[in-house]
């Protein structure tokens, strides 16, 4: 139904953003996110989730 479709689209959008954030984060281009990069990622995700759940 529509609700299920909406959830899928939302998930795809979030994954696309996460993928972009991951690539942006890999500042030294070694193909992986080290601990410092990981902490930055978590901070970004937290802010993103706040925006997603608070702003309606
Ligand atoms: Ca890296």
TrEMBL record:
<dbReference type="GO" id="GO:0005509">
    <property type="term" value="F:calcium ion binding"/>
</dbReference>
<feature type="domain" description="EF-hand">
    <location>
        <begin position="13"/>
        <end position="48"/>
    </location>
</feature>
<protein>
    <recommendedName>
        <fullName>EF-hand domain-containing protein</fullName>
    </recommendedName>
</protein>
<keyword id="KW-0106">Calcium</keyword>
<keyword id="KW-0479">Metal-binding</keyword>
<dbReference type="InterPro" id="IPR011992">
    <property type="entry name" value="EF-hand-dom_pair"/>
</dbReference>
<dbReference type="InterPro" id="IPR001751">
    <property type="entry name" value="S100/CaBP7/8-like_CS"/>
</dbReference>
<dbReference type="Pfam" id="PF00036">
    <property type="entry name" value="EF-hand_1"/>
</dbReference>
<dbReference type="InterPro" id="IPR002048">
    <property type="entry name" value="EF_hand_dom"/>
</dbReference>
<dbReference type="InterPro" id="IPR018247">
    <property type="entry name" value="EF_Hand_1_Ca_BS"/>
</dbReference>
């Amino acid at each position: 139904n529509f609700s299920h479709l909406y959830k899928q689209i939302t998930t795809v959008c979030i994954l696309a953003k996460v993928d972009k954030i991951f690539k942006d984060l890999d500042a030294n281009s070694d193909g992986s996110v080290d601990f410092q990069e990981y902490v930055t990622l978590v901070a970004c995700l937290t802010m993103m989730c706040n925006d997603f759940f608070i702003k309606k």
